[in-house]
Target: glycogenin glucosyltransferase
Amino acid sequence: MSSEAFVTLATNDNYAIGAMVLASSLRQVGTQKHLFILITNGVSDNIREVLAKFFDTIQLVDLLHSPDPKILQALKRPELAVTLTKLHCWKLTQFTKCVFMDSDTLVIKNIDELFERDELSAVPDVGWPDCFNSGVFVYQPSDVTFNQLIEMAARDGSFDGGDQGLLNQYFSDWSTKDIGRHLSFIYNMTLASTYSYLPAYKRFGQNVKVIHFLGALKPWYCSYNASMGKLNTFIGNDQARDFIEKWWQMMVANVHSAIEQLNLVGSMSNMVIDNPAAIQQPSSSNEDRYQAWQQGQMDYLGADSFENIQKRLDQSIHGQ
Model:
């Protein structure tokens, strides 16, 4: 086993599928590092079985909630409470060095050189560059560091209520001590910044190695046309569309076949691959479909996709 590892975290099925795409992208660019994923009980059993096809090690961990939920409410981002679970990554002391990556990232060029950097190396945050963004960072596992982080969280909380605020408090000299710990933006390029400084993207965009789908817009919430290789609908800038389509291309090529037989329901039903050729294939009877719906078994990639339901509704309305 490699003494170095890429580590990610999934707290539900959505992010677990994002993690599968991340793992596929890491393998596609040729890394031989160990791929490790931390998961919580929010990840279903059937998804856990599929994760084993993409990661060398899967470890179940407890959910660590933010010690200061009022801050999260003020930020209108209560979902960030679970991000403190990320701290478990410091307990992976079987590795000498790790690179943590959020499961909503995508690697498009090899980044193994990051293991040459010291703890804590990260990219400046676009919102406040004196802080680092905790979506991608190089660190050294340590039980001492883990315990100190937990103690700080309990004592001082986090200024943003999540892991990024806490980690910036703990590694408070990141912005001033050693410029070598400042990673280039190409290792954690967020969608939000590509259109705020478009000339820079046009100048340096070809060097980008990691795309980070930061914020509420996640690729798995978009509808994708596999036959055309394009998103069905998208409101946003061209760069964001291109990045999300890159994610979907990786998803269709390497992950879709592993999950298409699973009965994914709830929010996962938002993830639609619209393939006209597949839609034209013979489908089960209406009675069979009704039984499947009653049992919560929706064909979210086919007959029960939102687009197909909308088509049927339009046909009924217009008497077709």
Q: What stands out?
A: The chain has eleven helices and twelve strands.
